């Protein structure tokens, strides 16, 4: 069962999102919050697999709440940002806050379920428009950032580089395990080590480094 905390300051939106999520028998909304501060408290209390956060909320907006949740030492909760807006500045801010997913409220309801399932499994998920924006950001000034990214991955072992490349390609822990003939627990250990060595908060930020360093291209 995938346990979710949902935060949005509009009760009607919470009801709608909750209704969509619970159409999947493997997803359970364990708590709902009306503001960012309450979301932080509920995540600490319930320790869900996923927190779905609206961006515009009182008492800590979604970005601030995501940053607090992702920075917690005991955190095992993946964060998805859910918003009406999909501007590149919002997406970049969500990534810096540590979010693993970014969805727009006007999107296909099936994207919400797919996104929750993906980030709960250790992958990342972005709405089509957000994904296009993220990919575009890799192409902008990539040469300048590539050298810095390659320096950051120098400390990784050959196996860690293989795992990083697959993380960058969007593979889940289960998929990485199948491809590299590793048990899922070992993959999780590798991913944790990679995040620590790269000094990043989550897989999305590691994936960005993987793209900038060019390790994902070596898979093809």
Chart the SSEs and their pairings:
Blueprint lengths: L1 E6 L3 H11 L5 E7 L2 H11 L3 E5 L7 H10 L6 E6 L4 H10 L3 E4 L4 H12 L4 E2 L1 H12 L2 H11 L5 H11 L4 H8 L3 H15 L4 H11 L7
Parallel strand pairs: 1-2, 1-3, 3-4, 4-5, 5-6
Helix pairs in contact: 2-3, 3-4, 7-11, 8-10, 8-11, 9-10
Pfam family, one: GerE
Protein name: DNA-binding NarL/FixJ family response regulator
GO molecular function: DNA binding
What does this structure look like?
With 220 residues, this protein is of the alpha/beta class. The protein folds into two domains: 135 residues, Rossmann fold (3-Layer(aba) Sandwich), CATH 3.40.50; 79 residues, Rossmann fold. It has eleven helices and six strands. It has a six-stranded parallel sheet, sandwiched between helices. Helix 2 packs parallel to helix 3 and helix 9 crosses helix 10. It is globular, with a radius of gyration of 17 Å. It starts with a strand and ends in a 7-residue tail after the last helix. Keywords: DNA-binding, Phosphoprotein, Transcription, Transcription regulation. InterPro entries: CheY-like_superfamily, NreC/VraR/RcsB-like_REC, Sig_transdc_resp-reg_C-effctor, Sig_transdc_resp-reg_receiver, Tscrpt_reg_LuxR_C, WalR-like. This is DNA-binding NarL/FixJ family response regulator.
């Amino acid at each position: 069962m995938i346990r979710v905390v949902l935060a949005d300051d509009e009760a009607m939106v919470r009801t709608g999102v909750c209704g969509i999520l619970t159409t999947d028998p493997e997803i359970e909304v364990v708590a709902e919050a009306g503001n960012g501060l309450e979301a932080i408290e509920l995540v600490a209390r319930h320790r869900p697999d996923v927190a779905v956060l609206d961006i515009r909320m009182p008492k800590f907006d979604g970005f601030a709440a995501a940053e607090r949740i992702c920075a917690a030492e005991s955190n095992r909760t993946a964060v998805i940002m859910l918003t009406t807006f999909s501007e590149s500045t919002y997406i970049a801010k969500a990534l810096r806050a540590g979010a693993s997913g970014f969805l727009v409220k006007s999107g296909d309801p099936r994207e919400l379920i797919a996104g929750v399932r993906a980030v709960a499994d250790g992958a990342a998920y972005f709405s089509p428009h957000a994904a296009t924006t993220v990919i575009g950001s890799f192409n902008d000034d990539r040469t300048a950032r590539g050298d810095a990214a390659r320096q950051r991955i120098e400390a990784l072992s050959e196996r860690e580089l293989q795992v990083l490349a697959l993380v960058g390609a969007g593979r889940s822990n289960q998929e990485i395990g199948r491809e590299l003939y590793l048990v899922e627990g070992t993959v999780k250990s590798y991913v944790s080590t990679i995040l620590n060595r790269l000094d990043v908060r989550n897989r999305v930020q590691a994936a960005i480094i993987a793209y900038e360093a060019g390790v994902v291209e070596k898979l093809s």
